[in-house]
Structures are given as structure tokens and as C-alpha cells.
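Priority: medium. Attachment 1 of 2:
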């Protein structure tokens, strides 16, 4: 998805649009869907909605963004975990479990397993706040056969913290400018930068790894 297309989509799901049509249900659906499959950067959706909510006169707009974001993320996580558990229990696996494996680098999965062994559910809570941390930790929980109930207990505070963190980014962007679209641009840039940082760092490390043998 191009940056321009995403900005258009972000404006479509902001609270201002909600008062005219169905912006909050659309925001909820996109966040839940984005938690299942990586179709849109869900953190950026929460941030952009928070920017416009910051400029609304109704004080509860920010609370609605927080509620919609956290509930959408939670339901998407639980659905994905339930689908993954079906794959773990099946002899033939499942496409959902295979997709999770494909999205988690082996070294990140091993690191998540060690942290889960050492710190338990606390790692699950923090995984949503770490860029690219959610899927390896979720996969480690699945492979460790964590019960769904235990996963839910850890995922509730994780989603609340996640929605709060990206909402604060939106509030920051909204407070910097009088015009909402400028705050949206800043919020989108920040969230995309945060979410893309791990992939960029991996590319840099791979590039250094290729150069080092040649230099040697």
C-alpha cells in the first residue's frame, strides 16, 4: 500500500468521518483485520484517528479511539491465536500456523521462547509495544502450547498498552499543528518509521554481513 493511499484511508476512518457515517466501525474492522493479516499498519490507524479526535470538541472522542483500537486489536489477536492453536493440534498443521512461521524470523522466535521461559506472560504484554515483537511471541506461545485463557489474560493489558501508546503519538502529532492533516502526516510518518525500523536494521546487518567477507 502506497503512503498516499494509506493517508486517504486514514482520513476515512477518523472520528470526524465517524460523525458523518461509520468511521468507528470501519476503524474497528481494519484494526481487527490488520491484527489477523498484515494488510494495513494498525498502529498508524490508531494514531491518525487520535490526531483528529484531539481536534474534536467532544472530549470522549479520544476515549472512543482508545476503546475501538484496543478491542479491535484484542479480538484480532485472539482470533489469530485460536486459528494458530488449531494448526498446532492438527497433524497436518494449518495455513494460519504456516503464515505465522513465515512472519517470524527463527532467531526472533528463539529469543521470544527464552524470554517467555524467563518472564512468562509479562513478555506477551510487552510484545505489542516492541516493533515486530508480536508475531514471534505469539508463535512462541503457540508452540509452547499456552492455553487460550492464559493468552487472553496477557493480551488484554498488551492491547490496552498498545492502543494507549499509539494514541499518545496521535495526540503529540495533533498538539503540534492547528490543522489536523499536518498532525496526521506526522503521526503516519512516526508510526511507519517505528514499525519499519526492525526490517531496516535487518537489511543493514545483512548488507554488512555480505561486505565483511569480501573485505576480508
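Attachment 2 of 2:
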Amino acid at each position: 500500500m502506497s503512503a498516499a493511499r494509506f493517508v486517504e484511508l486514514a482520513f476515512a476512518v477518523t472520528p470526524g468521518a465517524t460523525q458523518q457515517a461509520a468511521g468507528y466501525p470501519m476503524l474497528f474492522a481494519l484494526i481487527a483485520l490488520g491484527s489477523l493479516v498484515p494488510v494495513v499498519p494498525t498502529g498508524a490507524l490508531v494514531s491518525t484517528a487520535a490526531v483528529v479526535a484531539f481536534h474534536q470538541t467532544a472530549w470522549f472522542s479520544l476515549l472512543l479511539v482508545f476503546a475501538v483500537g484496543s478491542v479491535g486489536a484484542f479480538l484480532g489477536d485472539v482470533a489469530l491465536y485460536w486459528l494458530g492453536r488449531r494448526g498446532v493440534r492438527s497433524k497436518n498443521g494449518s495455513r494460519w500456523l504456516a503464515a505465522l512461521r513465515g512472519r517470524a524470523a527463527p532467531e526472533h522466535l528463539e529469543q521470544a521462547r527464552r524470554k517467555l521461559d524467563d518472564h512468562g506472560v509479562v513478555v506477551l504484554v510487552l510484545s505489542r509495544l516492541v516493533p515486530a515483537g508480536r508475531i514471534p511471541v505469539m508463535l512462541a506461545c503457540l508452540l509452547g502450547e499456552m492455553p487460550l485463557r492464559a493468552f487472553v489474560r496477557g493480551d488484554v493489558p498488551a492491547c490496552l498498552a498498545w492502543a494507549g501508546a499509539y494514541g499518545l503519538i496521535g495526540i503529540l502529532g495533533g498538539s503540534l499543528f492547528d490543522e489536523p492533516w499536518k498532525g496526521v502526516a506526522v503521526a503516519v510518518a512516526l508510526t511507519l518509521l517505528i514499525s519499519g525500523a526492525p526490517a531496516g536494521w535487518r537489511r543493514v546487518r545483512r548488507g554488512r554481513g555480505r561486505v565483511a567477507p569480501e573485505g576480508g
